[in-house]
Every structure is written in C-alpha cells, then in structure tokens.
Design a protein that fits this description.
single chain; 595 residues; 5-stranded mixed barrel; globular
C-alpha cells in the first residue's frame, strides 16, 4: 500500500464499508457539531466526508487546522445515516470515521477561499492562481482542456496525420502581430523571434515530402488581450496537407470539430456540414466575418429608399447624398415592446460611440404607418418598400443606422447581438459553425491609402493564375477561409501559394520588391524553388475550442497560468528586470531615457 493513500477521494462506496483506508488530500471545509467534527477531504478526483468524535486524541488538532492544509487520514468506512446521504457526490453514501490524522502541510490564512464559487477580482485570482485552480469549476475546466487535447491528437492520427515539432526560436516575420524577440548571446546584436505561428515551417514540412502534419503548437504574439485572446501565448491545432484543395481541408476539420464537440458537450450542432458564407455576404448580412448564426437577425441595406421624395427624414437624406449608407435590422413582431426597450437600444448604441439608432414599428389601422420617434418621416409607400427589402410585416420594428459603410457595419454587428440577447432569440444550447470563404487577397490601408495583404500573404489567389488581373488587385479573391462557431473565430487557414514567380508578383502589389521577398522569406522562397506540392492547412485555436465547450466567455477561465490584461504574470512576477551581468552577456543596454 502507498504510504499516503489506499484510495482516492472519489472511490469509496458502500462496498467498502468496514474497510480501513488511508486518504490524503486538502481540508476542503469543516463543520463543527460540538461532539462531532465533519470535514470534507478533497483531492484531484473528488471529495470524501470524514468524521471525528471529540474523545479522539486528534480532535483538537483537527479543530485548529486551517482550510486547505494537506492531511493524511487513517480511518474506517461507514455508511451514512439514513437521510444524510449526498447524491451529488460519488462518495455520498459513506463517510470515513477517523482514527488518526497527520498534517502533511499547514496552510496559512487564505487570500481567497477554495470552497464555493464566488467571484473574486482577477488580480487576486491570478496572483494566487494555484489556489484558484483548486476551485471545482476551474479544476474541471483544466481537466477538460487536457482531455480535449488528447482526443484531438487521437482523431488526427486516425485521419492519417503525423505529429512533428517545429522550432520555437526562429526569425522575425514582417507580417502579422508584433514579435516577441530573444537576443542571441552567440550572435551579438541579432535576435531570434518566438513564432507567431509555425506558418513557414509547416509549409516547409510539406515541401520536405511529408504529406499530413499536425502539432499542438504554442504560438507567441505581442498583442493586447481580449476575452477570446490571451496576451503573449496561446495554443493551436496546427495542420497542413499536401495535394489538397480547399474542400479537402474542410472535410478533415468538419469531421474533427463534430467529433470533438459531440464528445465533450451535450449541446446540439446545428449543421454537421458547415455552411459556406462568402466574406462579402457575411459583412453584408451580419456586419462581421465572425457571425453568430444562432442569431436570426439580418442586416439589410436600405440606402436606396432615401432617394425617395416621400421620405422626409432629412438628416439621413443629406448624409446619403454625401455618400453615406443606411442599413437596418428588422425585429419580428415587436409591436408590443415597451418604449424603454427601444430607447435602451438607442442609448446603448450611443455608448458605443455611434450617433444612436433611429427606430420605428410598422403598424396598420386605415393604412400602413410607422410608430416611433422617426416614424412620421415615412410615407405608406416608402414603408411598403422597406418591408419588401427587409422581409417585414405589420407589427415588426426597424433599427436604422446611417454613416460610413464600415462604421455602421461595425455598429450594427454589435447591435445585432445586443438586440438578439435582449429579445432572447439566441439558443445557448446549440453550436452553429460556418466557413467564411472568398476573402479578398488585398485591402486598402485606411491610414496610408496603400494596398496591403488582407489576410495571409502566402495564400493562393483564386482563378487562372496565368491571367491574374493585377491592375485591379482589390478584386482578387484568395483561397483563404475562417472557421467560426457561435460568433467566435476558431481559426484562419488557406491554400498556400507554392509558386515563387506568383509570390513575387503578389508581394509586389503590396509594395515588396524581389529583394525584400528574398531577404524576409529566404527559407520559404528557396524551398519553393526546388519543387513544392500544392498544399494548404488551418490552425484552430485550442483555447477557444475549450472556452466554447466549457461555456465560458473568457479564455483565461480555461488556461492554466494566464497573464493579465497588461501581459503580466502576477504569480511569477513576469516580465521582470534582469541584472547587469545578463545584459552584458547579451550585449544589451537599457535606455532609461523618457521618450
């Protein structure tokens, strides 16, 4: 027998009654009944209730022992008295009558309690993350994460993929987010970069003759935190395949996602063959390329009707004449909603930095009219046209926004989610996946007015590459795709450009000459010049997958030791200063001058 335990704290049942056992774990909580002291002993596996009488020599020791101290308990398994069973525990039919106790480790006064699931400030939770992780929900989240990763590995192997590891120290890339840089001691003045993703390496694996690659890859990006994005580092399922087209990648990923989400959640998957939605259509219908398809609300463009003479909404009409767009969200059968419902949506929109949302409800007495602050500006005929465009009926309501196209798309995308939640239109017991496809290869930089890559510079353009129209680069679409679930982007991917001559041509459009490409992507260009297969891949985010499966809104709830919003590890106190000797070895000096 192990000297610390004969069983773990979730194993004992009625079949073990009268057995003498050894248990070790944390003192989860105590309940003093005077002549009896009950404790819950917790380990990784579960909880066992233990009881000690006041005539036991160890009673006073246990009375003084603080919660979260580590105990070894020797005792006898007994059945709980009728009516005192706990059906929520695996061990709820029994308890352990304590014979002896050894305190293996005393705990100090706790900065946050482990028992209970109360909310605590993030800085306290992250500073004492080792305590936070002992809490039941957090513990389950991390176990879920481990099981999901193991399951994904097994599924990838079933589909014929092999796992390979790519370098952590590599060269800096000019594309994407900021790099984390690592100074080289042996090469003074030069730096490695931690990989933002194994993008170039996984392509080089295909060029090297391997057919299907995957790894659970750590990625490092010096970018700001969001609820669905960790600052510093994250993990992704990185995969790449040779001799494939876009649909081949989709087939692999759809099968994987369906199996993972079915295995670890009871929620329904809406469509097991994920809908394909073009980037253009997604922006037009949902205002974003990350649509939550559980939400039935659709954005409609109603700009054209503001050229009508029988619409007297002069503010919008003047803006439209100067080039603005008007878009609308229609809500079905909301005629009985209170004025405060509509005003709260308008107030919320103003808080987002917009000018608010105009609104009205369509009604009919003798004729069709509009009720609401701006309803009086619309004639019956104009309302009929709006109803036709928006698929509206009597009793429906419209929210309208006018302005620059990209600004109102952003506002209405958020408003679409806000309104749907307020109306309880979203079924939170479903997973709704989709593919966003046909991304533009290039876009216009709003600040510089120059053309830049919109997505992944290593992607293959669509169409006949020998007849590529470089005169209208904004019309070029790429074999680039995102997978989205419930409004969360899980991954971006692409069919890769494996033709060096084409790569030079595309990079030239974005302002890179041949020398720039050869210098910045020397390994890639050289490899592609020696025979490269057509290939493509994707990299779903592990953290976001687990976040969805755990039903959490913040990625830090499914990450072992996350950083805070300022990219600080409060527990390990990183980043930290380094001493002069280390700086000298690296040939570095700290510039303390204030900029």
């Amino acid at each position: 027998m192990n000297k610390f335990r004969s069983h773990n704290c979730s194993e004992l049942t009625r079949k073990d009654v009268n057995c003498e056992v050894l248990l070790s774990g944390w003192l989860h909580r105590k309940r003093d009944h005077g002549n009896l002291l009950f404790i819950d002993l917790r380990d990784h596996y579960g909880i066992t209730q233990c009881v000690i009488e006041n005539n036991n020599e160890f009673f006073s020791l246990l009375e003084k022992t603080k919660p979260e101290s580590v105990l070894k308990i020797n005792g006898k398994v007994v059945s709980r008295a009728n009516g005192t069973e706990n059906k929520e525990l695996k061990t709820g039919d029994i308890e352990v009558s304590i014979k002896s106790i050894e305190v293996l480790s005393n705990a100090k006064e706790l900065p946050i309690p482990v028992f209970g699931e109360q909310d605590y400030p993030e800085d306290i939770r992250l500073t004492y993350r080792f305590l936070d992780l002992r809490r039941e929900e957090m513990h389950k989240n991390i176990i879920l994460r481990s099981k999901v990763i193991s399951f994904i590995r097994a599924e990838m192997l079933k589909q014929g993929f092999l796992e390979y590891q790519t370098p952590i120290l590599t060269s800096s890339s000019p594309e994407g987010a900021r790099d984390f840089l690592v100074p080289s001691r042996l090469n003074p003045g030069k730096f490695y970069a931690l990989p933002q993703a194994p993008q170039q390496f996984k392509q080089l694996i295909m060029v090297s003759g391997f057919d299907k690659y995957f790894q659970i890859a750590p990625c490092f990006r010096d970018e700001d935190a969001r609820a669905d994005r960790s600052p510093g580092e994250f993990y992704q399922l990185d995969l790449e395949m040779s001799f494939v087209e876009q649909e081949d990648v989709f087939k692999v990923v759809e099968k994987l996602m369906v199996n993972v989400f079915k295995r670890f959640s009871s929620k329904k998957i809406v469509d097991e063959k994920f809908p394909r939605i073009s980037f253009k259509e997604s922006i037009e219908r949902y205002g974003t390329d990350k649509p939550d398809l559980r939400n039935p609300l659709i954005i409609k463009d109603v700009t054209s009707i503001f050229s009508r003479d029988d619409i007297k909404f002069d503010i919008f009409k003047k803006l439209v004449k100067s080039g603005a767009s008007v878009k609308a969200i229609l809500t079905k059968n909301t005629k009985n909603k209170s004025r405060s419902f509509f005003d709260n949506i308008d107030k919320w929109a103003k808080e987002q930095g917009g000018s608010g949302l105009a609104y009205f409800t369509i009604e009919k007495e003798q004729k069709i009219s509009a009720k609401g602050p701006v309803g009086k500006f619309f004639s019956e005929d104009s309302l009929k046209e709006i109803m036709k465009i928006c698929d509206g009926s009597i009793g429906d309501s419209l929210f309208l926004s006018c302005g620059k196209k990209n600004e109102i798309e952003k506002l209405l995308s958020a408003a679409r989610n806000k309104i749907a939640e307020d109306l309880n239109l979203v079924d939170h017991n479903k997973f709704s996946f989709c593919w966003i496809i046909d991304y533009p290869m290039f876009e216009l930089d709003e600040k510089t007015n120059k053309i830049k890559f919109s997505h992944n510079p290593f992607s293959m353009p669509q169409g006949d590459v020998n007849k590529l129209n470089t005169k209208n680069p904004l019309d070029i679409k790429a074999y680039q795709y995102d997978i989205v679930c419930n409004g969360v982007e899980l991954s971006s991917g692409a069919i890769r450009n494996h033709v060096p001559e084409l790569m030079y041509k595309l990079f030239a459009i974005a302002g890179y000459n041949e020398k720039d490409v050869n210098e910045k992507f020397s390994g890639m260009i050289q490899a592609l010049s020696f025979g490269a297969p057509p290939h493509g891949g994707i990299a779903p985010g592990i953290d976001r997958i687990v976040m969805l499966l755990a039903g959490k809104q913040n990625i830090r709830e499914v990450t072992l030791f996350p950083m805070n919003q300022n990219a600080q590890d409060l527990m390990m106190r990183a980043p930290s200063e380094i001493d002069t000797k280390q700086l000298k070895e690296l040939g570095l000096k700290i510039d303390n001058k204030k900029s």
